[in-house]
Write a structure and sequence with these properties.
Elements lengths: L9 E9 L2 E8 L9 E10 L3 H5 L9 E2 L3 E9 L13 H4 L5 E3 L10 H4 L24 E4 L2 H4 L1 E2 L12 H10 L2 H4 L5 H13 L5 H5 L23 E6 L3 H15 L5 E6 L3 H13 L2 H4 L3 E5 L1 H12 L4 E6 L4 H10 E9 L12 H7 L2 E4 L4 H14 L1 H4 L9 E5 L4 H9 L5 E5 L3
Parallel strand pairs: 9-10, 9-12, 10-11, 12-13, 13-14, 15-16
Antiparallel strand pairs: 1-2, 1-4, 3-5, 3-7, 3-16, 5-6, 6-8
Helix pairs in contact: 7-9, 7-15
Bound molecules: zinc ion (ZN) (2 copies).
Protein name: Chaperonin 10-like protein
GO molecular function: metal ion binding
Organism: Mycena pura
Length: 432
Protein backbone atom coordinates (compact mmCIF):
# COMPACT_ATOMS: atom_id res chain seq x y z
CA UNK A 1 0.00 0.00 0.00
CA UNK A 2 1.52 3.36 -0.98
CA UNK A 3 1.19 6.56 1.02
CA UNK A 4 -1.18 7.91 -1.62
CA UNK A 5 -3.74 5.28 -0.56
CA UNK A 6 -4.16 7.32 2.63
CA UNK A 7 -4.35 10.66 0.81
CA UNK A 8 -7.73 12.41 0.65
CA UNK A 9 -9.66 11.93 -2.58
CA UNK A 10 -11.59 15.20 -2.56
CA UNK A 11 -10.59 18.73 -1.67
CA UNK A 12 -11.94 22.26 -1.37
CA UNK A 13 -11.28 24.58 -4.29
CA UNK A 14 -12.23 28.10 -5.35
CA UNK A 15 -13.58 27.80 -8.87
CA UNK A 16 -14.52 30.26 -11.58
CA UNK A 17 -17.80 29.44 -13.34
CA UNK A 18 -18.61 32.53 -15.33
CA UNK A 19 -18.17 36.31 -15.06
CA UNK A 20 -18.55 37.40 -11.41
CA UNK A 21 -19.44 33.84 -10.38
CA UNK A 22 -16.89 32.33 -7.98
CA UNK A 23 -17.83 29.19 -6.05
CA UNK A 24 -16.22 27.12 -3.30
CA UNK A 25 -16.63 23.46 -4.23
CA UNK A 26 -15.47 19.93 -3.55
CA UNK A 27 -13.44 18.50 -6.43
CA UNK A 28 -11.11 15.52 -6.87
CA UNK A 29 -7.56 15.92 -5.53
CA UNK A 30 -5.20 16.18 -8.54
CA UNK A 31 -3.03 13.20 -9.46
CA UNK A 32 0.39 12.88 -11.09
CA UNK A 33 -0.20 12.90 -14.86
CA UNK A 34 3.38 13.15 -16.11
CA UNK A 35 6.67 11.89 -14.59
CA UNK A 36 7.84 15.56 -14.24
CA UNK A 37 4.78 16.49 -12.11
CA UNK A 38 4.65 17.24 -8.39
CA UNK A 39 1.55 17.46 -6.22
CA UNK A 40 1.69 20.27 -3.67
CA UNK A 41 -0.54 20.66 -0.61
CA UNK A 42 -1.36 24.37 -0.66
CA UNK A 43 -1.02 26.11 2.69
CA UNK A 44 -1.76 29.64 1.45
CA UNK A 45 -2.95 31.04 -1.87
CA UNK A 46 -3.45 34.66 -2.86
CA UNK A 47 -5.90 36.68 -4.89
CA UNK A 48 -4.17 38.81 -7.53
CA UNK A 49 -5.12 41.79 -9.70
CA UNK A 50 -4.65 39.69 -12.82
CA UNK A 51 -7.22 37.16 -11.53
CA UNK A 52 -9.73 39.97 -12.08
CA UNK A 53 -9.45 39.75 -15.88
CA UNK A 54 -10.95 36.26 -15.83
CA UNK A 55 -13.28 37.17 -12.93
CA UNK A 56 -14.81 39.92 -15.06
CA UNK A 57 -15.20 37.54 -17.99
CA UNK A 58 -12.58 39.17 -20.22
CA UNK A 59 -10.38 37.26 -22.61
CA UNK A 60 -12.95 34.80 -23.91
CA UNK A 61 -12.59 32.28 -21.05
CA UNK A 62 -15.45 29.76 -20.87
CA UNK A 63 -14.02 26.74 -19.07
CA UNK A 64 -14.90 26.24 -15.41
CA UNK A 65 -11.58 25.99 -13.57
CA UNK A 66 -9.79 26.41 -10.24
CA UNK A 67 -8.67 30.02 -9.83
CA UNK A 68 -5.41 31.48 -8.66
CA UNK A 69 -1.75 31.49 -9.66
CA UNK A 70 -0.09 32.44 -6.35
CA UNK A 71 0.49 29.64 -3.87
CA UNK A 72 2.88 28.25 -1.30
CA UNK A 73 2.78 24.76 0.17
CA UNK A 74 4.35 21.40 0.78
CA UNK A 75 5.23 18.64 -1.68
CA UNK A 76 3.08 15.53 -1.11
CA UNK A 77 3.84 13.47 -4.20
CA UNK A 78 6.50 13.38 -6.94
CA UNK A 79 6.48 11.82 -10.40
CA UNK A 80 8.85 9.07 -11.51
CA UNK A 81 11.46 11.51 -12.85
CA UNK A 82 12.47 12.64 -9.35
CA UNK A 83 15.45 11.07 -7.62
CA UNK A 84 19.20 10.58 -7.95
CA UNK A 85 18.79 9.12 -11.46
CA UNK A 86 17.85 12.60 -12.74
CA UNK A 87 21.34 14.17 -12.72
CA UNK A 88 21.91 16.64 -15.54
CA UNK A 89 18.41 18.06 -15.36
CA UNK A 90 17.40 21.14 -13.27
CA UNK A 91 18.59 20.48 -9.71
CA UNK A 92 15.20 19.88 -8.11
CA UNK A 93 14.63 16.72 -10.19
CA UNK A 94 17.37 15.08 -8.12
CA UNK A 95 16.93 16.89 -4.78
CA UNK A 96 13.23 17.70 -4.21
CA UNK A 97 11.59 15.49 -1.55
CA UNK A 98 8.09 14.85 -0.26
CA UNK A 99 7.58 17.23 2.69
CA UNK A 100 9.67 20.08 1.24
CA UNK A 101 8.18 23.57 1.48
CA UNK A 102 7.90 25.20 -1.93
CA UNK A 103 6.72 28.39 -3.54
CA UNK A 104 5.89 28.53 -7.22
CA UNK A 105 6.19 31.19 -9.90
CA UNK A 106 2.79 31.87 -11.45
CA UNK A 107 3.75 30.12 -14.67
CA UNK A 108 5.26 26.72 -15.36
CA UNK A 109 8.73 26.82 -16.94
CA UNK A 110 10.86 23.86 -17.96
CA UNK A 111 14.27 25.35 -17.12
CA UNK A 112 15.81 23.30 -19.91
CA UNK A 113 15.02 25.03 -23.22
CA UNK A 114 16.76 27.89 -25.00
CA UNK A 115 14.13 30.41 -23.84
CA UNK A 116 14.55 29.41 -20.19
CA UNK A 117 18.36 29.33 -20.48
CA UNK A 118 18.31 32.92 -21.77
CA UNK A 119 16.38 33.92 -18.66
CA UNK A 120 13.03 34.55 -20.37
CA UNK A 121 11.36 31.87 -18.28
CA UNK A 122 7.83 33.28 -18.43
CA UNK A 123 7.83 32.60 -22.17
CA UNK A 124 9.01 29.00 -22.02
CA UNK A 125 7.34 27.09 -24.90
CA UNK A 126 6.12 24.60 -22.26
CA UNK A 127 4.90 27.45 -20.05
CA UNK A 128 1.36 27.42 -18.71
CA UNK A 129 -0.40 29.92 -16.45
CA UNK A 130 -1.83 28.47 -13.24
CA UNK A 131 -5.49 29.30 -12.65
CA UNK A 132 -6.39 29.56 -16.31
CA UNK A 133 -8.38 27.36 -18.71
CA UNK A 134 -5.16 25.48 -19.58
CA UNK A 135 -4.02 24.66 -16.03
CA UNK A 136 -5.89 24.34 -12.72
CA UNK A 137 -4.98 27.01 -10.18
CA UNK A 138 -3.63 27.29 -6.67
CA UNK A 139 -6.73 28.42 -4.78
CA UNK A 140 -7.31 24.83 -3.71
CA UNK A 141 -6.08 22.45 -1.03
CA UNK A 142 -3.86 20.63 -3.55
CA UNK A 143 -2.38 21.51 -6.93
CA UNK A 144 -0.59 19.65 -9.69
CA UNK A 145 2.61 21.41 -10.80
CA UNK A 146 3.86 20.33 -14.26
CA UNK A 147 7.66 20.49 -14.88
CA UNK A 148 7.98 21.08 -11.13
CA UNK A 149 11.74 20.45 -11.13
CA UNK A 150 12.24 23.48 -13.38
CA UNK A 151 9.45 25.56 -11.90
CA UNK A 152 9.35 25.39 -8.09
CA UNK A 153 11.61 26.97 -5.49
CA UNK A 154 12.50 24.69 -2.59
CA UNK A 155 12.34 26.84 0.53
CA UNK A 156 13.41 23.86 2.68
CA UNK A 157 16.73 23.78 0.80
CA UNK A 158 17.94 27.34 0.19
CA UNK A 159 21.17 25.95 -1.30
CA UNK A 160 19.10 24.96 -4.32
CA UNK A 161 18.63 28.57 -5.44
CA UNK A 162 20.93 31.48 -5.83
CA UNK A 163 20.63 34.79 -3.90
CA UNK A 164 22.82 37.72 -2.97
CA UNK A 165 22.71 36.39 0.60
CA UNK A 166 24.89 33.61 1.98
CA UNK A 167 23.39 30.19 2.68
CA UNK A 168 23.37 30.86 6.42
CA UNK A 169 21.73 34.25 5.96
CA UNK A 170 19.06 32.70 3.76
CA UNK A 171 18.37 30.00 6.34
CA UNK A 172 18.12 32.50 9.18
CA UNK A 173 15.89 34.80 7.12
CA UNK A 174 13.57 31.97 6.05
CA UNK A 175 13.07 30.90 9.65
CA UNK A 176 11.77 34.37 10.51
CA UNK A 177 9.50 35.12 7.57
CA UNK A 178 5.80 34.24 7.64
CA UNK A 179 4.33 32.12 4.83
CA UNK A 180 1.95 34.98 3.96
CA UNK A 181 5.04 37.07 3.21
CA UNK A 182 6.94 34.33 1.32
CA UNK A 183 3.82 33.87 -0.80
CA UNK A 184 4.49 37.30 -2.36
CA UNK A 185 7.47 35.65 -4.14
CA UNK A 186 5.08 33.81 -6.45
CA UNK A 187 4.19 36.92 -8.41
CA UNK A 188 3.70 40.40 -7.01
CA UNK A 189 7.13 41.08 -5.53
CA UNK A 190 9.16 39.65 -8.46
CA UNK A 191 6.83 41.54 -10.83
CA UNK A 192 7.42 44.80 -8.95
CA UNK A 193 11.18 44.22 -9.01
CA UNK A 194 10.95 43.35 -12.73
CA UNK A 195 9.19 46.64 -13.52
CA UNK A 196 11.74 48.65 -11.53
CA UNK A 197 14.72 46.74 -12.94
CA UNK A 198 13.61 47.25 -16.53
CA UNK A 199 13.07 50.98 -15.98
CA UNK A 200 16.40 51.48 -14.18
CA UNK A 201 18.34 49.56 -16.82
CA UNK A 202 16.62 50.95 -19.86
CA UNK A 203 19.05 52.36 -22.48
CA UNK A 204 17.14 55.66 -22.35
CA UNK A 205 17.67 55.95 -18.60
CA UNK A 206 21.41 55.34 -18.94
CA UNK A 207 22.41 58.97 -19.70
CA UNK A 208 21.11 60.10 -16.30
CA UNK A 209 22.65 57.14 -14.47
CA UNK A 210 26.06 57.27 -16.18
CA UNK A 211 26.30 61.06 -16.44
CA UNK A 212 27.06 60.79 -20.17
CA UNK A 213 24.66 62.06 -22.82
CA UNK A 214 23.19 59.65 -25.34
CA UNK A 215 24.87 57.80 -27.10
CA UNK A 216 28.10 58.21 -25.07
CA UNK A 217 26.09 56.51 -22.31
CA UNK A 218 26.63 53.20 -24.14
CA UNK A 219 30.42 53.48 -24.06
CA UNK A 220 31.79 53.53 -20.50
CA UNK A 221 35.33 54.40 -21.65
CA UNK A 222 34.30 57.45 -23.67
CA UNK A 223 35.73 60.50 -21.86
CA UNK A 224 34.29 63.04 -24.33
CA UNK A 225 31.22 64.15 -22.44
CA UNK A 226 29.79 64.47 -19.00
CA UNK A 227 26.60 66.07 -17.75
CA UNK A 228 25.83 68.41 -14.88
CA UNK A 229 24.01 66.77 -11.96
CA UNK A 230 20.92 68.91 -12.53
CA UNK A 231 20.54 67.47 -16.05
CA UNK A 232 20.71 63.98 -14.65
CA UNK A 233 17.67 64.20 -12.38
CA UNK A 234 15.49 61.13 -12.82
CA UNK A 235 11.72 61.52 -12.82
CA UNK A 236 9.61 58.37 -12.57
CA UNK A 237 5.86 57.84 -12.50
CA UNK A 238 4.31 54.62 -11.18
CA UNK A 239 0.73 54.20 -12.43
CA UNK A 240 -1.48 51.91 -10.33
CA UNK A 241 -0.98 51.41 -6.60
CA UNK A 242 -2.52 48.01 -6.03
CA UNK A 243 -0.31 45.31 -4.46
CA UNK A 244 2.05 45.08 -7.48
CA UNK A 245 2.27 48.88 -7.67
CA UNK A 246 3.26 48.96 -4.00
CA UNK A 247 5.98 46.35 -4.61
CA UNK A 248 7.16 48.36 -7.61
CA UNK A 249 7.48 51.56 -5.55
CA UNK A 250 9.44 49.79 -2.79
CA UNK A 251 11.75 48.15 -5.30
CA UNK A 252 12.31 51.33 -7.30
CA UNK A 253 13.15 53.24 -4.11
CA UNK A 254 15.56 50.49 -3.11
CA UNK A 255 17.38 50.68 -6.45
CA UNK A 256 17.45 54.48 -6.51
CA UNK A 257 18.72 54.72 -2.95
CA UNK A 258 21.89 52.96 -4.15
CA UNK A 259 22.53 55.69 -6.77
CA UNK A 260 23.94 59.16 -6.25
CA UNK A 261 21.62 60.83 -8.75
CA UNK A 262 18.77 63.19 -7.80
CA UNK A 263 15.37 61.55 -8.31
CA UNK A 264 11.67 62.14 -7.88
CA UNK A 265 8.81 59.65 -8.05
CA UNK A 266 5.12 60.34 -8.42
CA UNK A 267 2.96 57.33 -7.54
CA UNK A 268 -0.47 57.61 -9.15
CA UNK A 269 -3.86 56.09 -8.38
CA UNK A 270 -7.40 57.52 -8.50
CA UNK A 271 -8.29 55.56 -5.31
CA UNK A 272 -7.48 57.53 -2.17
CA UNK A 273 -7.09 54.51 0.14
CA UNK A 274 -4.39 53.12 -2.16
CA UNK A 275 -2.51 56.42 -2.12
CA UNK A 276 -2.73 56.45 1.66
CA UNK A 277 -1.36 52.92 1.86
CA UNK A 278 1.63 53.68 -0.38
CA UNK A 279 2.48 56.76 1.71
CA UNK A 280 2.18 54.72 4.93
CA UNK A 281 4.56 52.15 3.42
CA UNK A 282 6.94 54.89 2.28
CA UNK A 283 6.96 56.48 5.72
CA UNK A 284 7.77 53.15 7.32
CA UNK A 285 10.88 52.59 5.19
CA UNK A 286 14.06 53.92 6.81
CA UNK A 287 16.15 56.66 5.21
CA UNK A 288 18.68 54.21 3.79
CA UNK A 289 15.87 52.42 1.93
CA UNK A 290 14.16 55.59 0.72
CA UNK A 291 17.18 57.46 -0.56
CA UNK A 292 17.30 61.22 -0.79
CA UNK A 293 14.76 61.78 -3.54
CA UNK A 294 11.17 62.99 -3.48
CA UNK A 295 8.21 60.62 -3.33
CA UNK A 296 4.56 61.65 -3.57
CA UNK A 297 1.30 59.75 -4.13
CA UNK A 298 -1.29 61.67 -6.15
CA UNK A 299 -4.49 61.51 -8.18
CA UNK A 300 -4.22 61.55 -11.97
CA UNK A 301 -4.77 65.30 -12.45
CA UNK A 302 -2.49 66.29 -9.58
CA UNK A 303 0.23 63.99 -10.91
CA UNK A 304 0.07 65.57 -14.37
CA UNK A 305 0.67 68.98 -12.81
CA UNK A 306 3.45 67.65 -10.59
CA UNK A 307 5.34 66.12 -13.53
CA UNK A 308 4.93 69.39 -15.45
CA UNK A 309 6.32 71.40 -12.53
CA UNK A 310 9.14 68.99 -11.72
CA UNK A 311 10.37 68.69 -15.32
CA UNK A 312 9.54 72.08 -16.82
CA UNK A 313 6.92 70.43 -19.04
CA UNK A 314 9.34 67.85 -20.53
CA UNK A 315 8.01 64.71 -18.84
CA UNK A 316 9.16 61.59 -16.99
CA UNK A 317 12.38 59.73 -17.73
CA UNK A 318 10.39 56.51 -17.41
CA UNK A 319 6.82 55.54 -16.57
CA UNK A 320 6.02 52.22 -14.90
CA UNK A 321 2.50 51.17 -15.85
CA UNK A 322 1.07 48.49 -13.54
CA UNK A 323 -2.63 48.52 -14.47
CA UNK A 324 -3.05 47.37 -18.05
CA UNK A 325 -5.98 49.34 -19.40
CA UNK A 326 -6.43 52.06 -21.99
CA UNK A 327 -6.59 54.98 -19.60
CA UNK A 328 -3.45 53.86 -17.74
CA UNK A 329 -1.42 53.42 -20.91
CA UNK A 330 -2.71 56.76 -22.31
CA UNK A 331 -1.61 58.44 -19.10
CA UNK A 332 1.81 56.77 -19.40
CA UNK A 333 2.18 58.16 -22.92
CA UNK A 334 1.12 61.65 -21.77
CA UNK A 335 3.58 61.64 -18.87
CA UNK A 336 6.68 60.24 -20.57
CA UNK A 337 9.32 62.56 -21.97
CA UNK A 338 10.62 62.46 -25.54
CA UNK A 339 13.27 59.71 -25.60
CA UNK A 340 11.55 58.24 -22.55
CA UNK A 341 10.63 54.67 -21.68
CA UNK A 342 7.34 53.07 -20.69
CA UNK A 343 7.55 49.77 -18.81
CA UNK A 344 4.22 48.00 -18.65
CA UNK A 345 3.55 44.89 -16.56
CA UNK A 346 -0.25 45.20 -16.50
CA UNK A 347 -2.23 42.62 -18.48
CA UNK A 348 -3.86 44.46 -21.38
CA UNK A 349 -7.23 43.50 -22.82
CA UNK A 350 -9.68 45.25 -25.12
CA UNK A 351 -9.77 47.94 -26.42
CA UNK A 352 -6.43 48.09 -28.14
CA UNK A 353 -3.60 50.61 -27.79
CA UNK A 354 -4.93 54.16 -27.66
CA UNK A 355 -2.23 55.80 -29.79
CA UNK A 356 -0.81 55.63 -33.28
CA UNK A 357 2.62 54.73 -34.57
CA UNK A 358 3.01 58.38 -35.54
CA UNK A 359 2.44 59.48 -31.95
CA UNK A 360 5.13 57.05 -30.77
CA UNK A 361 7.46 58.28 -33.52
CA UNK A 362 6.88 61.88 -32.53
CA UNK A 363 8.05 61.18 -28.98
CA UNK A 364 10.74 58.52 -29.62
CA UNK A 365 9.01 56.37 -27.02
CA UNK A 366 10.33 52.93 -26.02
CA UNK A 367 8.01 50.27 -24.68
CA UNK A 368 8.82 47.23 -22.57
CA UNK A 369 5.67 45.16 -22.22
CA UNK A 370 4.88 41.89 -20.62
CA UNK A 371 4.82 39.23 -18.00
CA UNK A 372 7.48 38.86 -15.32
CA UNK A 373 9.90 35.92 -15.62
CA UNK A 374 9.50 35.10 -11.91
CA UNK A 375 11.97 32.24 -12.03
CA UNK A 376 14.91 34.56 -12.79
CA UNK A 377 13.64 37.52 -10.74
CA UNK A 378 13.27 35.35 -7.64
CA UNK A 379 16.78 35.96 -6.16
CA UNK A 380 16.43 39.76 -6.28
CA UNK A 381 12.88 39.59 -4.98
CA UNK A 382 13.88 37.28 -2.13
CA UNK A 383 16.67 39.60 -1.04
CA UNK A 384 14.29 42.58 -1.08
CA UNK A 385 11.67 40.59 0.85
CA UNK A 386 14.27 39.88 3.55
CA UNK A 387 15.50 43.47 3.62
CA UNK A 388 12.03 45.05 3.72
CA UNK A 389 10.21 42.86 6.23
CA UNK A 390 9.11 46.16 7.77
CA UNK A 391 6.59 46.52 4.96
CA UNK A 392 6.36 42.98 3.54
CA UNK A 393 6.15 41.16 6.88
CA UNK A 394 2.90 42.30 8.48
CA UNK A 395 -0.77 41.56 7.87
CA UNK A 396 -3.67 43.96 8.21
CA UNK A 397 -1.85 47.15 9.22
CA UNK A 398 -2.23 50.44 7.33
CA UNK A 399 1.39 50.01 6.19
CA UNK A 400 1.42 46.26 5.48
CA UNK A 401 1.18 44.73 2.04
CA UNK A 402 -1.23 41.89 2.94
CA UNK A 403 -4.64 43.11 4.10
CA UNK A 404 -6.37 39.91 5.23
CA UNK A 405 -5.96 36.14 5.57
CA UNK A 406 -9.35 34.43 5.22
CA UNK A 407 -10.83 30.97 4.72
CA UNK A 408 -11.93 29.81 1.25
CA UNK A 409 -15.63 30.28 2.09
CA UNK A 410 -15.08 34.02 1.94
CA UNK A 411 -13.73 33.87 -1.60
CA UNK A 412 -16.87 35.09 -3.46
CA UNK A 413 -17.09 38.13 -1.17
CA UNK A 414 -13.33 38.84 -1.33
CA UNK A 415 -13.31 38.68 -5.14
CA UNK A 416 -16.20 41.16 -5.22
CA UNK A 417 -14.54 43.55 -2.76
CA UNK A 418 -11.17 43.35 -4.51
CA UNK A 419 -12.81 44.00 -7.86
CA UNK A 420 -14.40 47.15 -6.40
CA UNK A 421 -11.08 48.39 -4.90
CA UNK A 422 -12.51 47.97 -1.39
CA UNK A 423 -9.69 45.74 -0.20
CA UNK A 424 -5.99 45.21 -0.99
CA UNK A 425 -4.03 41.96 -1.01
CA UNK A 426 -6.11 38.99 0.20
CA UNK A 427 -4.63 35.62 1.13
CA UNK A 428 -6.68 32.40 1.42
CA UNK A 429 -5.84 29.86 4.09
CA UNK A 430 -7.27 26.88 2.23
CA UNK A 431 -7.51 24.81 5.43
CA UNK A 432 -9.28 27.40 7.60
ZN1 LIG B 1 -0.56 37.38 -9.46
ZN1 LIG C 1 11.69 26.28 -20.98
Amino acid sequence: MSSSDFAPKVMKAIRWHKAFDIRVESVPVPKIQDPDDAIVKVTLAALCGSDLHIYRGHGGVEKVHISGHEFIGEVTELGANYGSHSQGRPELYSTLKVGDKVVSPFTVNCGECNVCRLGYTCRCPDGLLFGSPVLEGGQAQYIRVPKAGGTLFNLSDPKSWHSGLSHEMKKTALAGIADSSLLMLSDILPTGVFAALQAMNHPKVLPALTGRPWPSSFFPGDPSASMALEDRALTFAVIGLGPVGLCTCVSLLDMLSAQSVPFQIVAIDPVESRREKVMAVYNKIDEAGRGTGKFVAQSIDDAKNTVKTWTGGIGCTAVLEIVGNTSAISLAYDLVRPFGAIVSVGVHGEPQMPFTGRQLYNKNVSFDFGRCPVRVMFPMAFDLLVKRQDVFGGVGGPDSLVDRIVGPEEAPEMYAQFEQNKIGKVVFDMWK
